[in-house]
Amino acid sequence: MKYVSHATTHFRRFSARHSRIITDIIYDNTGKRKQRVPLDYSSNWRYNKCNQPPKRQKERDIKMNDFTEMFSLKGKIAWVTGASYGIGFAIAKAYAAAGATIVFHDIRQELVDKGLAAYEAEGIKAHGYVCDVTDEAAVNALVGVIEKEVGVVDILVNNAGIIKRIPMCDMTAEQFRQVVDVDLNAPFIVSKAVIPSMIKKGHGKIINICSMMSELGRETVSAYAAAKGGLKMLTKNIASEYGEFNIQCNGIGPGYIATPQTAPLRETQPDGSRHPFDQFIIAKTPAARWGNPEDLQGPAVFLASDASDFVNGHILYVDGGILAYIGKQP
Ligand SMILES: NC(=O)c1ccc[n+]([C@@H]2O[C@H](COP(=O)([O-])OP(=O)(O)OC[C@H]3O[C@@H](n4cnc5c(N)ncnc54)[C@H](O)[C@@H]3O)[C@@H](O)[C@H]2O)c1
Question: Which of 259, 266, 278, 295 best tests ligand 1's pocket when mutated (most atoms within 8 Å of CB)?
Answer without folding.
Answer: 259
